[in-house]
Amino acid sequence: MSDHRNDANPGAADVEHLACDVLVIGAGGAGLRAAVEARLAGKSVIVISKSLFGKAHTVMAEGGAAAAMGNVNANDNWQVHFRDTMRGGKFLNNYRMAEIHAQEAPDRIWELETYGALFDRTADGRISQRNFGGHEYPRLAHVGDRTGLELIRTLQQKLVSLQQDDEEAGEPAAKLQVIDETTITELFVEQGAVKGAFGYRRGTGAFMAISAPAIVLATGGIGRSFKVTSNSWEYTGDGHALALRAGASLINMEFIQFHPTGMVWPPSVRGILVTESVRGDGGVLKNAEGKRFMFDYIPEVFKAQYADNPEEADRWYTDPDANRRPPELLPRDEVARAINSEVKAGRGSEHGGVYLDIASRRSAEYITERLPSMYHQFKELADVDITAEPMEVGPTCHYIMGGVEVDAETAASKVTGLYAAGEVSGGMHGSNRLGGNSLSDLLVFGKRAGEFAAEHAAVTEPPKLGDDEIAAAQADALRPFANDGENPYALQAAMQEVNGRLVGIIRRAGELEEALTELAALKPRIDNVTAAGGRAYNPGWHLALDLRNMYLCSVATAMAALERDESRGGHTREDAPGMDPQWRRVNLVASLDGGELALARQDVPSMTPELLGLFETSELSKYMTPEEYRSTEAEDA
Ligand SMILES: Cc1cc2nc3c(=O)[nH]c(=O)nc-3n(C[C@H](O)[C@H](O)[C@H](O)COP(=O)(O)OP(=O)(O)OC[C@H]3O[C@@H](n4cnc5c(N)ncnc54)[C@H](O)[C@@H]3O)c2cc1C
């Protein structure tokens, strides 16, 4: 290895140059599905991944992928899935995305089996589907509680098969390269269109510039901006920030999902996810007094669908058509708030959570067969045998509903040639995502992003990157070595502390203002963050570069959370409880204006009469203004 890689001041020659038709940033489900589609369209593709290939969040997904295949309950269909998704998102969803998602998810799941996936089966040999919060029927296609592993394994296998098809290039992977352990730090843009990206190899610190007329962002979420999170180290909002800096917009960044059940003990594992499948398969939540408390927290809008007594709730598992669902399976925002309230009222568990009990309700064989990863996770990390004793759980930052504003049909952002799919995109889930809807979202819109990125590349001249812009990106990446400020870990901890204390599950206007002031005070410190040592294997330097992305996302979230003075889905304002129908018509759109974040209000597009007709007027009236749902009645008539 040449010694330049430890040099904090290399010259412009120290940059590896690559080119392709479609550059995919991120190798989770969305990125890999996009890459498959773009390659199938005949385009050359490069996939970049910050972590090891195969180690994206998608691989961690446990519960399953939601798709209305109707295998377990024949009453299920795309219209019911669409309704559930809109209800879960409290009707703020981009309705067209929710419609496309519900319609196309079954095909994307079946297609995966043609790529080699094998989902668990029903007794009659069809793909099995399990219950999950907010889904009216069993809908999650799954492989035990390791569904994401099967998804990633299959997509990787498909990529490898596509790498074998290019004899003319001489090198099998020439037209479908995967470059892992590489972080993209900047996008190159000219006259409103993307033309490439800049990054560095994490192992060596070597720089890379890739020219491409079409780029798909598939970088996942922002969880690492919070201390207690189910997200792993690489989720620092890079794609969100890259999009902003390139001129794209982010919508609804105030909506962050705190999953109700993360581990709370021991401290070293706090935040690690406890899958919702535990509740889907019969687990119930109890407080320190042994009370099954969720019956006390069923909101008015959900009373028709959720049982108000344990007998009916338990009967639902064997006879879902004649009984209402257990309240433990309310959408995640409701359950997380309920747990928060129990703990606050002094009825929490020993370590500040509540109890999740499946041991007293299902046999040990059932638990170890249905939830093998959970069994091992608790045994190894907490020395708890979940077949014999309850788990201690509490809310953990899990998913961001906000993200890059995209066109529903094409996944295109506002910047020409820039597409976004998966968790980095916004709109699909409205104010709250239903469990299982992310894996299906990333398959449906990953495919679309790949398809339309390939289409754009086909009609666009290969771009050229200028030496000056590459040198500027390189100088930005090297700045932490020349700075004389603070350690990046201390700054990340400070930012996490502000977000956790002031922008968490329950928010108040005064605290959000305080958060914005405290974040602003962090800005010059982040600009002056210092990296010590050389460029090879230097996680401190990597974090120093990630910090500015976390900062932009944190400010966008706090600004939007302050502006939206109502409570909806993953945004709860103690000083503005309840949903306001006027706010249901508003998306908050963040963009950069002269380097500063600016927020604008934008109308939520109205649903078509056909889609509105899928709901009872009595339900629409809980979310919409009278003019909105009455105009529907008039159109229907
Ligand atoms: C523990 C856990 C369990 C979950 N269970 C479920 C479930 O059962 N069902 C469900 O629907 N959802 C589930 N989710 C959510 C779901 O897994 C994620 O939302 C989804 O996988 C995101 O997929 P993605 O393709 O958008 O991004 P990811 O899978 O998160 O992949 C992002 C990729 O981008 C790369 N990347 C990031 N930044 C950069 C950069 N700057 N440069 C280059 N590469 C970059 C990363 O390295 C990674 O390869 C779960 C999430 C977690 C954390």
Automatic annotation (TrEMBL):
Enumerate the Pfam families for this protein.
FAD_binding_2, Succ_DH_flav_C
Task: Show where the FAD-dependent oxidoreductase 2 FAD-binding domain sits.
Answer: 21-439
Q: Which residue numbers delimit the Fumarate reductase/succinate dehydrogenase flavoprotein-like C-terminal domain?
A: 493-604
- Asked if the keyword Cell membrane belongs to this entry, the reply reads no
Q: Which domain of life is it from?
A: Bacteria
Q: Where does FAD bind?
A: 26-31, 49-64, 238, 423, 438-439
User: Which Gene3D superfamilies does the record match to this protein?
Assistant: FAD/NAD(P)-binding domain, Fumarate reductase/succinate dehydrogenase flavoprotein-like, C-terminal domain, Succinate dehydrogenase/fumarate reductase flavoprotein, catalytic domain
Q: Which UniProt keywords apply?
A: FAD, Flavoprotein, Oxidoreductase
Which coenzyme or cofactor does it need?
A: FAD
**UniProt-annotated binding residues for substrate:** 259, 275, 398, 433
Q: Which GO molecular function annotation, any one, does this entry have?
A: steroid dehydrogenase activity, acting on the CH-CH group of donors
Active-site residue numbers:
332 (proton acceptor)
Q: Which InterPro entries match?
A: FAD-dep_OxRdtase_2_FAD-bd, FAD/NAD-bd_sf, Fum_R/Succ_DH_flav-like_C_sf, Fum_Rdtase/Succ_DH_flav-like_C, SdhA/FrdA/AprA, Succ_DH/fumarate_Rdtase_cat_sf
Name under which the protein is recorded: Succinate dehydrogenase / fumarate reductase flavoprotein subunit
Species whose genome carries this gene: Glycomyces sambucus
In the record, what lineage is assigned to the organism producing the protein?
A: Bacteria, Bacillati, Actinomycetota, Actinomycetes, Glycomycetales
